[in-house]
Amino acid sequence: MSVPATASGTTAGTGTETVKAGRGRKLPRYWVLLAVVGVVLVLSLLRVITGAEDLTSSGTIIAALIAIVPIMLAGLGGLWSERAGVVNIGLEGMMILGTWGAGYFGYHHGAYAGVAGAILMGMLGGLVHAVATVIFGVDHIISGVAINIIALGAVQYLAALTFIGLPGGGQTQSPKIGDVPTVTIGPLSDALKDVEDTDIFFVADVAAILRALCTNLSSLVIVAMLLLVATWYILWRTSFGLRLRSVGESPAAAESLGVKVMRYKFAAVLISGGLAGLAGGFLAMVASSNYRDGQTGGRGYIGLAAMIFGNWRPSGLLAGSGLFGYTETLGLRQGGTSVHALLLAVAVLALAGGVWQLRRGQAVSGAVIVGVGALVGALYFAIDEVPRDFSSMTPYVITLLVLAFASQRLRMPAADGQVYRKGSAG
Amino acid sequence: MTRARMIRLALALAAPVLALVAAFAITSLVLIVAGDPVGEVWSSILSVPEERNVANIIKNATVLYLSGLAVAVAFRMNLFNIGVDGQYRVAAFTAAVVAGEAWLPGYLNTAFAIVCAMAVGALWAGIAGVLRASRGVSEVISTIMLNFIATGLVAYLLRKLAVREEGSNEIGTREIPEGSRIPNISIGEGPTSEIYGFIVIAAAAGFLFWFVLNRTRFGFDLRATGQSTTAAVASGINVKRMTIAAMMVSGAVAGLVGLPILFGDSYAYGSTFQSGLGFAGIAVALLGRNNPIGIAVGALLFAYLDEQSNPLQILVGVSPDIVAITQGVIVLTVVISYELVRRYGVRLEQREVARALENPTSPDRHDAQEASV
Q1: Among partner residues B138, B140, B145, which is closest to A396 by beta-carbon distance?
Q2: ipTM of the modeled complex
Q3: Facing residues of B194 across strands?
């Protein structure tokens, strides 16, 4: 599946032969692993140079995992729906429904029921979206906006109805929900802590990450990662997934080949809602310990952005949500120093990328990127710490920058967002 | 002709009525399932509002109207401005700072602040426009990101520029001097029956919206681009420039959203300044089908539902948030019922044409008509 490479490669007329060969080359299969190692190398280098110790502490990694998973699950919901050609801006609303579902069923029937309740409530939102967009042919964004309004009102109404009078519950929050099981490998965790404390370049950072993975790791984090892999397998390696994606690329062609277009779209949007609901459930049960009003804080939108960022692919989505979750965590922890350190990395990367662009003959974009890099670099040396309000903005600014510089390579499903009426194949 | 016209009018009215009835039914169903008293809820919401409630409804509707107009401008060009929320917040903050500093006397100060607000709103929305035109970034995503960034930016600037109010922890911008405030208009007795004087400006904005879109070259280009980009390109419209312009106009109108509150009520921008008006504007614009009169009706309906639901908690023990469900459902049912009515109308027209063709002339034309149906 090297669609973007071939799609954009044909238009690269001015580049030299070697550049062409480089762009057309398929990435090695283990590129995700290479990318992770590369990122850790950069971060540990940054830590050693700037002394921002929190960049790769195991505390940061644990918090980042918890921040990444809901964004990733929401993005996964967006991926399912958009691969079938339905834009789902209602992810936020479905997540909100999920938080209440987790709070209500989790309190009354235990943690597992909470997870199921979150998924079911999300699917309920998905059902509304599917009925509106697939059956009635409503504009996808209008339907999504309506679902966000309905979900917010419904959940506040339901919270007042169901949580007032319960111990610790009320208008804006549910009682405490039971915990989902966590995984800890005690001796390994302790051993890795010793390594982490040595502060050796790269080794300590890897130890911190491994330690985060074997200390109080929520089972839902593992489930989420498995869902990501399962999504990739189902959508790209099974005939069901192939048909589903064909519906998003060209519904008329799919229908003429006997694919039940409406059924696939419907199923995809339901699954999308379930995943978004689980994302909300994760917020209520793992990131926090109860339902709270306004808990999602726009993460449904961020998930959607992470998916676009990731070029409508699971691996890209993981990278996008990783970037968001990580920068958000940094902002919340020692934002001032950590985000300040990130500025240096951004500046160096932008300068390098800009010079590369210039050498390829892309004068305008190269110059712009070099300019941005120089500005960020100047900012790094001008201030000692990033103010709190700005460090909390980091994920959003980074999204805008990345979308601005990467968007021409992105390729969404060809029929995404278009309303399809049964029998249009003629 | 008159009969055809009447049918068209009846169909146009049928859609919103159908939508309201459906929303009413769905909300009632939710209430029944939840075990809340359906009858009491509706009789409370549908009771005749008192004078001060009417004033509140008009006040809130003024704000919602401006928000709906802002969304509708972009909508006419098939652009989805979800960023009205961020745009009006940076704009209202700017207006509050400018008017609070009072560099100019009296109403000159007011006018200057309004212009600044519109300019800042236009620039903020313009970022999304430029990104869309030059880099193809979906304005849906970029405006959402800009909303979050606006929140952080305004919070930061507020802390830098604000003054602490006497005897409270609340911080806000410097208060607007009395000579630069916009006086409220009274519709009855006492200060509780006053509506924003800004309503005049809102009405003017509505008229301008209609005039620019329907009577100017710019408006024609904008609507043409919205309906078909390829046709627009073929007729020589610079789509990229139109994209940026439409977003900026939308942002300029969005810049007005917070101002009725600022100049008629709060006189300063504090950390509790009302948020979320942009999202309500999307619903109102959809409800009003991007038409200035329709948006006014939509804004009044939403403001009415909000105001009338306020006492629900006290009177019948039901959370007033039930109204948000009604509002969201209305948005959906309006769109669905317009689509259903449109399909019905098309079928009606086809039948009419078929009948007209059937009677006098050649049968093969009739066959052709049927084949195409």
Answers
A1: B145
A2: 0.86
A3: B186
